[in-house]
Design a protein that fits this description.
152 residues, mainly beta, Jelly Rolls, 9 strands
Length: 152
C-alpha cells in the first residue's frame, strides 16, 4: 500500500480594523461636538479653526471588538493633509476615564502616517482620541482612512 500525503495550508485571518467608520462615510461613531472646528463631510474629517488642541474621538463602545486593550501592541495608520504647513502636531490617547497617552505629542508630515505603539497597562476604557495642534498656520488639517490594527 502506497502512502498518500496531502498538502494544505491554513489561511491567516484578516486583521481586524478596530476603528469603525475610519473612512468617514458619515459623521456617526465619532465625537467632536465639544471641539469646535471639526467637520465630518465628503468622506473626511477636517479641522479648520484658529484654536489648537481640539480632539476627534471614538469611544471604546463604538469600536470593533475588543477595542484598545492594555499592554497590547497596535499599528495606527491614517492619511493626513494640511494646507500652509508641512507638519501637524498630534497626540493620541485614550478616550475616557483617566486620559492615558498612547503616543506622545509629535509633529507628523502630511501623507500616510503610520504609528506603532503599545497601549499602557493603565488604560481603563480604551477608545482613541486625536488631539490636534496645528501650529504655523497649518489649516485646514484633514484626516481620512483611519485604521487601528492589533499586532500582538
Amino acid at each position: 500500500m502506497d502512502a498518500k500525503y496531502f498538502k494544505f495550508s491554513v489561511a491567516e485571518p484578516e486583521p481586524v480594523n478596530l476603528i469603525n467608520n475610519g473612512t468617514f462615510d458619515s459623521d456617526t461613531l465619532w465625537y467632536y461636538s465639544m471641539a469646535p472646528g471639526w467637520v465630518i463631510a465628503d468622506g473626511v474629517a477636517t479641522y479648520d479653526d484658529v484654536d489648537s488642541w481640539k480632539h476627534l474621538s471614538q469611544a471604546q463602545v463604538d469600536m470593533n471588538s475588543p477595542g484598545v486593550e492594555a499592554d497590547a501592541s497596535y499599528t495606527l495608520t491614517f492619511d493626513m493633509t494640511s494646507v500652509g504647513d508641512a507638519n501637524v502636531g498630534l497626540m493620541i490617547y485614550s478616550y475616557t476615564g483617566s486620559e492615558v497617552i498612547y503616543v506622545e505629542y509629535a509633529n507628523y508630515s502630511v501623507g500616510e502616517v503610520v504609528i506603532n505603539f503599545t497601549a499602557p497597562a493603565a488604560i481603563q476604557n480604551g477608545g482613541l482620541k486625536f488631539l490636534i495642534y496645528k501650529g504655523g498656520g497649518a489649516r485646514p488639517v484633514t484626516l481620512d482612512n483611519i485604521s487601528l490594527i492589533k499586532t500582538s
